Amino acid sequence: MNLQSLLSRIPTLEINGELNREVSSVVSDSRLAVEGSLYVALKGVTAEGHLFINPSIRNGAAVIVCQEFPAELDAQVTYVRVKDTATALGALASNWYGNPSQKLKLTGVTGTNGKTSVCTLLFDIFTKLGHQCVLISTVDYRIGDKVMPSTHTTPDALTINRIMAEAVEQGCDYAFMEVSSHGIHQHRTEGLTFSVAGFTNITHDHLDYHKTFDGYLRTKKSFFDGLSSDAVAITNLDDKNGRVMMQNTAAQTKTYALKTMADYHGRMLEADFNGMMLHFNGKEFWTTLTGRFNVYNLLLAFAVAVELGRTEEEVLTAMSELKRVNGRFEIIKSDGGIFFVVDYAHTPDALENLLDSINEIRTKNERLITVFGCGGDRDREKRPLMGKIAARKSTLAILTSDNPRTESPELIIKEIEAGIEPQYFSKYTVIADRKEAIKMAIKFAEPKDIVLVAGKGHETYQEINGVRHHFDDREVIGHLWKQMSK
């Protein structure tokens, strides 16, 4: 692509070198530069891209986009100075791939909990309604029937646009993507054109990255601040910050809620481990999903689908045929009558909602045994909060390891223990080995009891000291149950 075309819509501060030249590729990793590449020097969290300008040139880069020119300029190279290279990369990636988000009806969903469920529900709904769709989520990336492994909740701008360009080529007309706070803060969604944006909720998470809750909230809000007047923004009125998200958006705003009047109103009529009977905007339907938090997920998916032009009736019909999202309130019923629930809940709010949903369904004759841990090298402030919630709302809480990463599992568990109130000391135990913790839960459980294994959900690995070891909660439950019930 010609460099001048590639730079369209990108405010530049200074240019040194030839503008009328062809670019062979756009990269933000100097190791990927080849003859004729444009290299974007990102000021990253862990690496400073400006230090790799010369290595990218040695690999063949002919154009450098940076925030500061290097001390010595190569006469054969074009240097483009911009205010923020991360923002510029989003626009460059969109231009390079032919602005694919403008050729799709793109929905972005942000919030602390529920993003994966809502986006997956929407992908499945529109697929059932006969459309070719693309999904970008924590679990995987999908283009129609093609499934690719996920590397990030919100991948880098080049990956997003490459996936969307392929989706356009394959005839897709709808795209659904999770928009994480990291992705927003690092401008990975810059240059994308959103038709609809949805807000789930905001609770305590990622403070290791954002430092304060206010910083986290402002990052989420900036996603809606950046929407155009052609977009629709849909917010959760039951979340105390739901209205805050809409304060400065140019988009048309819509609301959804269970507890107050809204454009899209929902109500749970009945629920058990097989599913729920729900009431949305005056219409009843049955879903195999269960849990009050899933009512919110379904209601937002319903609102998005209707705003994208489908009728309420056809959306609810499609919803009634949907299966559960992998690792989200996934139920495994043993032949011994024990219910196992596997869920990704890894924040205080998600764990509390999950436990409340189970307690709402159970008759109290059954015991609720919760196995969970907290990830290492992540927000430490949530650990005692999760310990307090688990001990208070479970019959027995078994504290164990999650993905300790570079931290000591025992020290993580001590920080979880610190939040448990004295009156609940008899309601928890510690087994650092996750497999042994699940084994203990199975031993303790009796017919009709519920064993919740939380924190990892769909994940098929456990990360310890930089190494990912195969570990799937669902597989472990099945293997141990088979072994122990002989």
TrEMBL record:
Enzyme class: ligase
UniProt keyword annotations, A-Z: ATP-binding, Cell cycle, Cell division, Cell shape, Cell wall biogenesis/degradation, Cytoplasm, Ligase, Magnesium, Nucleotide-binding, Peptidoglycan synthesis
Location relative to the cell: Cytoplasm
Residue(s) carrying N6-carboxylysine: K220
BP GO annotations: cell division; cell wall organization; peptidoglycan biosynthetic process; regulation of cell shape
Annotated residues for binding of UDP-N-acetyl-alpha-D-muramoyl-L-alanyl-D-glutamate: S30, T153, T154, S180, Q186, R188
Keyword Plastid: no
Gene3D superfamilies named among the record's database cross-references: Mur ligase, C-terminal domain, Mur-like, catalytic domain, MurE/MurF, N-terminal domain
A molecular-function term among this protein's GO annotations: magnesium ion binding
Positions of ATP binding: G111, T112, N113, G114, K115, T116, S117
UniProt-listed Enzyme Commission number(s): 6.3.2.13
Annotated Gene Ontology cellular component terms: cytoplasm
Span(s) of short sequence motif Meso-diaminopimelate recognition motif: 402-405
InterPro entries (UniProt xref): Mur-like_cat_sf (IPR036565), Mur_ligase_C (IPR004101), Mur_ligase_C_dom_sf (IPR036615), Mur_ligase_cen (IPR013221), Mur_ligase_N (IPR000713), MurE/MurF_N (IPR035911), UDP-N-AcMur-Glu-dNH2Pim_ligase (IPR005761)
Domain annotation Mur ligase C-terminal: ranges: 327-457
SUPFAM superfamilies hit by this protein: MurD-like peptide ligases, catalytic domain, MurD-like peptide ligases, peptide-binding domain, MurE/MurF N-terminal domain
Pathway: Cell wall biogenesis; peptidoglycan biosynthesis
Binding-site positions, meso-2,6-diaminopimelate: R378, D402, N403, P404, R405, G455, E459
Catalytic activity: UDP-N-acetyl-alpha-D-muramoyl-L-alanyl-D-glutamate + meso-2,6-diaminopimelate + ATP = UDP-N-acetyl-alpha-D-muramoyl-L-alanyl-gamma-D-glutamyl-meso-2,6-diaminopimelate + ADP + phosphate + H(+)
Cofactor: Mg(2+)
Positions of the Mur ligase N-terminal catalytic domain: 23-97
Post-translational changes noted in the entry: Carboxylation is probably crucial for Mg(2+) binding and, consequently, for the gamma-phosphate positioning of ATP.
NCBIfam families, sorted: murE (TIGR01085), PRK00139.1-4 (NF001126)
Function of the protein: Catalyzes the addition of meso-diaminopimelic acid to the nucleotide precursor UDP-N-acetylmuramoyl-L-alanyl-D-glutamate (UMAG) in the biosynthesis of bacterial cell-wall peptidoglycan.
Family: Belongs to the MurCDEF family. MurE subfamily.
Protein name according to UniProt: UDP-N-acetylmuramoyl-L-alanyl-D-glutamate--2,6-diaminopimelate ligase
Organism: Marnyiella aurantia
Gene: murE
